[in-house]
Write a structure and sequence with these properties.
- The model has no long low-confidence stretch (mean pLDDT about 95).
- The longest helix has 17 residues.
- Helix content is about 75%, strand content about 0%.
- Helix 2 runs antiparallel to helix 3.
- The protein has about 170 residues and is mainly α.
Length: about 170
């Protein structure tokens, strides 16, 4: 039953077992129940195995909103282990931030980008900041704009903080 599968998946997320990665990936890609896939996307965030990156990215782009939301958060958890993984995940999160129709997914993409920011190369940091500022200025959903503001406030970059203050002083932000 879906409830039993979901409970087992959550247990594997709370108590990661390296032998469970292949099983969890099969569940993420093949289970017909979105709640089970959502639980699996969350659980995979507790695994540092590089094998989970691409399946989580695939879920981020192609699954239902609840799964996409957890896939974005899990990518931030596992990708921060290396600059290469962080860059890969950040690029995919930026893409989802630009195209996803669900505000909750966009908000989680911003949160995840903020978590990955210290681990990516400078070019990607600059791109992330520009996109988050664009979201802050233009997203139709106030909760997404709020998440963008929080993310920008938490980035430790003096020139960004000055730019952020200028946007406030010029009346572009409240």
């Amino acid at each position: 039953s879906p409830v039993v599968r979901m409970s087992a998946v959550y247990a594997l997320g709370r108590n990661p077992c390296p032998r469970a990665v292949d099983i969890l990936l099969q569940i993420l890609q093949n289970d017909n129940n979105a709640y089970v896939r959502r639980a699996t996307a969350w659980s995979l965030g507790n695994y540092s195995n590089e094998l989970v990156l691409k399946p989580l990215v695939q879920a981020l782009h192609k699954d239902v909103a609840a799964v996409r939301l957890w896939a974005s958060s899990s990518l931030a958890e596992i990708a921060s282990n290396s600059e290469e993984s962080s860059n890969y995940a950040a690029n995919e999160l930026l893409l989802s931030l630009k195209i996803d129709v669900e505000p909750g997914v966009r908000s989680n993409c911003i949160w995840s980008l903020g978590r990955l920011y210290p681990h990516v190369n400078q070019t990607l940091k600059d791109e992330m900041v520009e996109e988050i500022i664009t979201v802050l200025m233009n997203d139709i959903e106030s909760s997404v704009r709020y998440e963008a503001r929080i993310a920008l406030e938490q980035i430790d970059n003096p020139s960004l903080q000055e730019r952020f203050r200028n946007l406030i002083d010029e009346g572009h932000l409240i």
